[in-house]
């Protein structure tokens, strides 16, 4: 297994297409794991344990009449060019009905102009979406279910603007990962409130769901923390991340929007990851929708008994969903909607003989595997926003 994880780490480093978490490896997920993370809902946090036992928290879908969501990822840049016409036509003519649009992107930029002073204090705006209200009206005209993607703790813009909210090297510089990206500190309440302020504005603009991505500490953080300067408290990283998700749901609940979180696809198949602070079960408990990123290209030799998982899209997706159900079934009424991210791109970086060209048959195989495991909702990822036609969506 360790060999497999090492290979996964290299694959993620090579991944340039995005999809929420391109640079996190499974060995980081498995580092310093907790025995309670596999299939149980009890917690080391006394507050969570009491809440679980007393059942004070009742999960209610804020949009119970929403149809099954079948969506595509759309960059903020795409919303203003001719490709948007093509994508709207695709949704008009198929069962696809949703767009996940970057509102706070992978660099940390807010992707549209705003005069919201709380957002401007911490964030920096761009004009990728020149007229956000016109965009929302266009989506409504085409009956598109709009989802706002907000990248949370990977935020180079905020780290540069407010270094005290980030992680500082011994020489005083802002810490960066191997891709020259900076993270902000999940221990800082200001960071929580800033991202939730972005989410609140998106909800008021008409987005029906807020999708949080990069809800974690930096990859391999447990190996770096002792050499970095940052504010921290006694609470564990897992509880801090779960605490943010719970707080976000509570803050957004009055606005009647769903809250969803993107999470590493392997999280369904491995114990909790204390290093980066992600626990699949704890996060899932406090969201309306969980979106594991289960791209076949992101699994390496041996997963689900496949030599080359990218070449076996049906078997890989089916295996990942079996694990997901096993992980979340114990949550009972707290189990969220499972809406995976699936692959509509060709992973040529895997190397000759390790990948296949993805088209109609491969996308269909993933959807069929979802349906065969009781999953009706999904999201398609393609970094260039080019999606396959002719699929039985």
UniProtKB/TrEMBL annotation:
Upper classification of the source organism reads: Bacteria, Bacillati, Bacillota, Bacilli, Bacillales
Which Pfam families does the UniProt entry name for this protein? DUF4015
Q: Which organism is it from?
A: Paenibacillus abyssi
**Coiled-coil region:** none
All copies of domain DUF4015, residue ranges: 71-387
| Name of the protein | DUF4015 domain-containing protein
UniProt xrefs under InterPro entries: DUF4015, GH
